[in-house]
Write a structure and sequence with these properties.
The protein is an alpha/beta fold and 272 residues long. A 5-stranded mixed beta barrel has the order 5-8-7-6-9. Helix 1 packs across helix 3 and helix 4 crosses helix 8. The N and C termini lie far apart (36 Å). It binds hypoxanthine. Hypoxanthine binds next to strand 5, strand 8 and strand 9.
Length: 272
């Protein structure tokens, strides 16, 4: 089945199954997955029930859309992000974003865990993504253009909508939530970067490095959505400190800033 038909079939299934029509969607990275538990009147639809949907390959990560209300606004949370390093093509890992667009979602909030490249950052820094560098070696928009969504050559010069970032920064400051702003660089992973790569990325203008977000942001932008991105700096990137990188540190730091991260997502939703 061609990609467009799979997207349409999945969107039709969900529109029939769920009464809410959210214009805001959230994709939550490491450490923030439980935000979906704070929704009111929530309805969970597992990916395995949705026709033609990609299934996350990591054990214990059953994907699902959770529909519900937050601050009285209808929202949908995509639980169980699929990463490019898991081996599926980028068109597959971003299919949930296409389906959200087909259902009428207008704003996509993306969060992730990332390594700090900017030397003024510390583990626990929250960074609003101002722009990105796609160093993944792939692009989800390669292939026949999906004309129903957007043009062959989309403009992405304001992908992480500047006007929205200004509102978020003002509200975060008022709520006493420290918020950096910088450039996110995506590598494919799954290995962490080398110290030489991190030095090169710093020279290129990167402030944070990670293994997600860019494919989803590109597909959302192509589909005409506005995008908000937030990185939780869970560790300093390779070579910055004389320590080995490991996933346990990523999980531990994400857990430490969990409450502040929740508050920031609340502030973002108030800003929309
Ligand atoms: N590099 C890439 N991805 C990451 C890192 C990192 O240092 N930390 C969390 N995700």
């Amino acid at each position: 089945m061609i990609l467009q038909d799979r997207i349409t079939a999945a969107a039709e299934y969900l529109l029939e199954k769920v009464a809410l029509r959210p214009e805001i969607a959230l994709v939550l990275g490491s450490g923030l997955g439980d935000y979906a538990d704070t929704l009111d009147e929530s309805v969970k639809i597992p990916y395995r029930d949705i026709p033609n949907f990609p299934q996350p390959t990591v054990e214990g990560h059953t994907g699902a859309f959770v529909f519900g209300k937050k601050q009285g606004k209808p929202v949908v949370v995509a639980q169980g992000r699929v990463h490019y390093y898991e081996g599926l093509p980028m068109q597959e890992i971003t299919l949930p974003i296409r389906v959200l667009a087909a259902m009428g979602v207008k704003t996509l909030v993306l969060t992730n865990a990332a390594g700090g490249v900017n030397l003024s950052y510390k583990p626990g820094t929250l960074m609003l993504i101002a722009d990105h560098i796609n160093f993944s070696g792939a692009n989800p928009l390669i292939g026949p253009n999906l004309e129903k969504f957007g043009p062959r050559f989309p403009d992405v010069s304001d992908l992480y909508t500047a006007a929205l970032r200004e509102r978020i920064k003002t509200r975060a400051a008022a709520a006493d939530i420290p918020l950096a702003e910088g450039v996110y660089l995506m590598c494919s992973g799954p290995n962490y970067e080398t110290p030489a790569e991190i030095r090169a990325f710093r020279a290129l203008g990167a402030d944070a490095v990670g293994m997600s977000t860019v494919p989803e942001a590109l597909v959302a932008g192509h589909s005409g959505m506005q995008v908000v991105g937030v990185s939780c700096i869970t560790n300093m990137a390779a070579g910055v400190l004389p320590v080995k990188l490991n996933h346990a540190e990523v999980v531990e730091t994400a857990a430490k800033v969990h409450d502040q991260f929740h508050d920031l997502v609340d502030v973002i939703l108030q800003s929309l």
